[in-house]
Amino acid sequence: MNREVLKILRCFHALTGSDTTSYLAGHSKKTCWEVFKVHHNLLRGIGNIPVLTDQTIKDAEEFVCKIYGAAAASSTNEVRVSMFVKGVTNDKLPPTSDALLYHIKRSHYQALVWRQAHVQYPVLPPPETMGWKMEENSLIPELSSLPPVPKACEELTSCTCSTGCRTKLCSCKKTKIPCIASCICKTSGEPCRNITF
Question: Is residue 91 classed exposed, middle or buried when 0-12, 13-18 and 19+ CB atoms within 10 A define those classes?
């Protein structure tokens, strides 16, 4: 592996999951590594300069599409639709383009921190502009600017819980929407415990 590829390793680590950035659902470092070996150039802009460019965001999203097996796609929204119509469950879908943007911002910020770890006064953008928000003097990851499920789609999701949605296996609970009349829990005789709304 040449020196240029080694420089991109921090970008790969930040984007695919570290102590401060989340991982990509359903994909370990090992599966992501296979994509990185071929398409590492798509991550060369992450953490290089304080300003996160549109091209860097586009390239990182393309890299994530490849991780989810969609070599020709350039948007995770396209990949989500393709996987959804094949019957893939919600928890195995890639993030929306909107949610991924916030993840890319946090990954970029983390890679910047690592790149300048040896510098006494690193040049970093404000974290609030890089996928974080301040709540009660703590930085909290900002996950998306859109609701988790569009209102029109809430009626399409229903659970098959016969035990009152007690566990995290409840599909409604996973997607953080209330159970509706078509959910099995409503007719099971058990009180619904989906209190995610």
Answer: exposed
